[in-house]
Amino acid sequence: VMASHVLATVMSVCVLLVFFLLAIRKTLTKRVLLSILKSVLATALLSAYFTVPFLDAFRDGYVHLVSQYGNESLHEVFLNQLFATNFHTTGDEIMNDAISPMHLELPLTFGPATGVLFLIAIYLLLRLRGEDRGKKKRRLLFIAFGLTALSIFFYSSLFPYARIEEHLPLVAAFFDLFQFAWRLMSWTAALLGLLFLFVLQVVREWKGWKWVQGTILLFLFLFCYQAVNYNSDYSNHAETGKEIVDISRTGAMKLGYAEYAIVGVNPLESDLKTSAPQVQIGSLFQKGLAATVEVRVPGEAKGAFVEFPRYAYRGYHAWDARGKELAVDRSTGKVRVLLPAGFTGPVHIDFVQPWYWRAAQLLSLLFWGMLVYEGIRITFCRYGKRSCFHTR
Predict the structure, then answer these.
(1) In total, how many domains does the chain have?
(2) What are the angstrom distances between the C-alpha of 316 and each of 54, 265, 274, 331?
(3) Whose CA is closest to 36, among 24, 25, 28?
């Protein structure tokens, strides 16, 4: 899982570097490097609320992706998936169960947002063809358009993944190992954003800021429409049942509710476990991530424990009724609380975020607030009487 995501990051960086090398003659200038460094730093700060907890939670655990049939509207909607129309999970029928999950579940088709963006880009390319001062813009726009179209082709239903599976099994094995089509999503989203910025720049020079705002509102409407369409399509075609499928090994499945689970742990197990029948437990009371249960351990019992139906991610702690912290064993993949002999009373567990998780969230919140404030300030300054920028 982590290797495939690292590969996606490397691929995205390489594709963007190819764009810079093709589009800009003097790429490695001090100004360009400083701009890239600022962008990387801003991205790290704005996404710290997610990346810090994610990396910390999985740094000492092994996970795989398990899936069960359920309400498919629970799936996360990725940015570039909003460019699609319908999200089909049926692949080439001739392959049946032998087909790999990668091209069974390719979500992208030529959606309205992508279609409108491509039509605008083609119109601008034709419009700039006869203008001498527009040669540089046309060249940059053409490169961005070509790379975007190529990346969409690679993981759209137009690319013959099923035929590769049938006639070139070694190539298909490599694609399937790294889920190649899914990894392309990261750079496609970046290229679509780059193409969109080029379109906005040309629109601003020709028509002014009001047309730019209108273009942004148009695409926001299309994005929201696609998000609603996505959830509606998946909800109305959801399967029901409780079968667990490991999609890293099996391709014969329809996309359902999926999550990352610790290896060796069945996510459907929801019962309390104890070290021995002599350890008496009451009913489990759950509220959010917290859980409480009454436990009575005989005086002669040694090595007693109660295991809660919770994944043993970092951050879970356990206490008794007096607030004294109890030892937690995470070796089984579930939250197992170790109890001394003769223990009687409630055992309470809850997920407590480490201080650096909170710090990362506050840092991201601060920078998001600064970004929104700056956007509002520039908008009001542009249409006001005073300048947006301070002069010395």
Answers:
(1) 2
(2) 15, 17, 18, 13
(3) 28
339: DSSP letter: E
Q: Is the pLDDT of residue 288 over 70?
A: yes
State the residue range of the domain holding 312: 273-351
Residue 200 falls within a domain, yes or no? yes
pLDDT of the residue at 44 = 82
Q: Phi first, then psi: give them for residue 255, nearest 5 degrees.
A: -60, 125
Based on C-alpha coordinates, what's the Rg of the chain? Answer: 27
Q: What is the CATH number for 323?
A: 2.60.40
Residue 186 is assigned to a structural domain of this protein = yes
| All residues at 6 or more sequence positions from 370 whose CB lies less than 8 Å from its CB, including other chains | none
Domain membership of residue 168 (yes or no) is yes
Q: Whose CA is closest to 349, among 385, 305, 392?
A: 305
Chain centroid to CA 312: 22
pLDDT digits (tens, 9 = 90+) for 138-177: 777 787 788 778 777 776 656 776 677 778 888 777 776 6
- Predicted TM-score (pTM) of the model is 0.50
- Say if 40 falls within a structural domain: no
- 299 and 337 inside one domain: yes
Q: Is the domain of 70 the same as that of 204?
A: yes
Q: Can you give the pLDDT at residue 255?
A: 36
pLDDT of residue 133: 63
Tokens at 123, concatenated: 């119109």
SS3 assignment, position 257: strand
Nearest residue to 335 (alpha-carbon basis) of 311, 354, 353: 311
Specify the higher pLDDT residue, 132 or 245: 132
Q: What angle do CA 199, 129, 115 make, to 5 degrees?
A: 40
The model's confidence at residue 199, banded by pLDDT at 50, 70 and 90, is confident
Same structural domain, 257 and 278 = no
Q: Are residues 239 and 280 in the same domain?
A: no
Tell which of 232, 262, 292 closes a domain.
262
Q: Give the whole-angstrom CA distance, residue 111 versus residue 61.
A: 38
Q: Return the minimum-mean-pLDDT range out of 124-138, 238-252, 336-350.
A: 238-252
Determine the pLDDT at residue 160. Answer: 73
Instruction: Count other Cβ atoms within 10 Å, centred on residue 141.
Output: 23
